[in-house]
Q: What sequence folds into this?
């Protein structure tokens, strides 16, 4: 026979509820700590196109970036531009991996690898003969500084049109590499084809000097500075993500703004 | 005779405690990001009073050179931080608890009296409901701050795609400064909050875990009075 259940006294109720809630609270604290240790000690991703991040964090970075791309990315969303006078006279220089020293334009050709295997070799003079576009915008570094600067060059779109690379733009990605292949970025096609993406050969009123990617650099205002490769040597197209210097060091592959 | 008085709902307790590790991780990873270019300082008439942050601070927390790690954590935990705040606000709206939280037209005057009382300058604290006027203002402000962090965060995370948001925040640069100042605000809120909790005593702290308070019932009044010793 079951014992008849006695009504708990107030004291007992208080004790019982305190015990239960503190036990749950303790369990929650312990599992939070365990979860945190798990995440913090989770293995790094297998190095490939991206590397240097913990696996769960990389998944989160990729998913988050894709979420925002699908939700709001639109090539009609233009980067805010400023009056020319607001541009910095002296443009901040941060790093020159892959673009050390000088590379006079006469010793340089832009190599564009077509799907057919054909490689276009384009000189700076040929590029400068194409329609010139200028932009004054706020350049943003992933480190957190930003600077209004003025650049001039050829729209990436105009290069595609002029050299009839429409077939190539059906692929998902464009890769840019320095002539020595020490610095390289992968850009998703919608960002590359953004109307404000420039192949710049001029800052303010002078041709790019050594520190700023002489003779041609990428200015892609919808991406952080790390994607704005200096000294373009080769442009190629592919359907899978091309290798990317900073994505191999734990940064987000897209780094879009 | 002792009696149980229900005080904090399960959801309020849940979101409150979950927020503690979340905000800690957000601030920590935020500093990892900030370190990459620590340019903010408080300068008045050419004299710098505070530089965020001194070297010993970075050395203590082993922060230098971990920008990509900071970004990865920040962009994962921002989801939970946002969702947690969203659930809390949704709950207070549905349950009607917002009535006890939003300051009313007397709150700003009363909050001053609460402050004087807390500082032992004034003997009697103004009558209060579940929360006193100062608490109402603080707890509402912290929600607005959380909302501000999410908005300014989005404004600096996607300034091109959310350009209208960045514009609302006064531009990229100002949005970033606001985001930073809000973080300083959390830290100050946290410190004051802890001091207040210590002063309010164990039973008050316990109620935020167990949800109820133990009160001593005297002869049951027909109308429950809001007496001085029920103050939390």
A:
């Amino acid at each position: 026979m079951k014992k008849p259940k006695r009504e708990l006294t107030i004291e007992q109720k208080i004790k019982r509820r305190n015990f239960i809630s503190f036990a749950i609270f303790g369990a929650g604290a312990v599992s939070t700590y365990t979860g945190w240790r798990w995440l913090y000690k989770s293995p790094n991703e297998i190095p490939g196109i991206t590397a240097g991040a913990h696996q769960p964090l990389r998944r989160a970075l990729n998913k988050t970036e894709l979420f925002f791309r699908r939700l709001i990315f639109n090539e009609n969303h233009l980067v805010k531009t400023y009056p020319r006078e607001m541009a910095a006279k002296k443009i901040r220089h941060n790093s020159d991996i892959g673009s050390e020293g000088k590379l006079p334009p006469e010793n340089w050709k832009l190599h564009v690898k077509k799907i057919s295997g054909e490689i276009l070799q384009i000189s700076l003079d040929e590029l400068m003969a194409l329609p010139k576009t200028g932009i004054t915008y706020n350049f943003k570094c992933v480190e957190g500084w930003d600077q209004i600067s003025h650049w001039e060059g050829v729209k990436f779109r105009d290069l595609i049109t002029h050299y009839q690379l429409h077939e190539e733009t059906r692929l998902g990605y464009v890769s840019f590499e320095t002539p020595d292949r020490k610095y390289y970025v992968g850009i998703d096609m919608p960002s590359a084809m953004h109307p404000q993406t420039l192949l710049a050969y001029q800052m303010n009123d002078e041709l790019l000097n050594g520190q700023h990617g002489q003779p041609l650099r990428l200015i892609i205002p919808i991406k952080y500075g790390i994607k704005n490769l200096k000294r373009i040597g080769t442009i190629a197209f592919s359907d899978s993500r091309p290798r990317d210097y900073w994505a191999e060091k734990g940064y987000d592959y897209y780094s879009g703004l | 005779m002792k009696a149980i008085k229900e005080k904090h709902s399960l959801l309020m307790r849940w979101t409150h405690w979950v927020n503690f590790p979340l905000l800690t991780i957000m601030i920590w990873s935020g500093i990892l990001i900030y370190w990459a270019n620590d340019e903010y300082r408080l300068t008045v008439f050419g004299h710098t009073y505070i530089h965020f942050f001194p070297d010993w601070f970075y050395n203590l927390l082993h922060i230098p050179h971990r920008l990509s790690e900071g970004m990865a954590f920040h962009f994962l935990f921002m989801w939970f931080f946002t969702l947690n705040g969203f659930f809390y606000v949704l709950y207070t709206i549905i349950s009607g608890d917002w009535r006890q939280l939003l300051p009313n037209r007397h709150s700003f005057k009363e909050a001053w009296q609460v402050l004087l009382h807390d500082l032992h300058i004034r003997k009697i604290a103004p009558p209060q409901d579940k929360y006193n006027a100062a608490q109402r203002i603080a707890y509402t402000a912290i929600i607005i701050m959380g909302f501000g962090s999410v908005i300014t965060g989005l404004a600096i995370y996607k300034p091109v795609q959310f350009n209208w948001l960045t514009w609302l925040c006064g531009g990229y640069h100002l949005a970033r400064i606001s985001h930073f100042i809000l973080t300083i605000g959390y830290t100050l809120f946290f410190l004051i909050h802890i001091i207040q909790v210590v002063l309010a005593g164990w039973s008050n702290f316990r109620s935020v875990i167990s949800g109820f308070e133990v009160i001593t019932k005297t002869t049951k009044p027909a109308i429950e009075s809001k007496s001085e010793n029920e103050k939390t």
Notes: Residues 55-249 of chain A form a domain with the Sulfite Oxidase; Chain A, domain 2 fold (CATH 3.90.420.10).
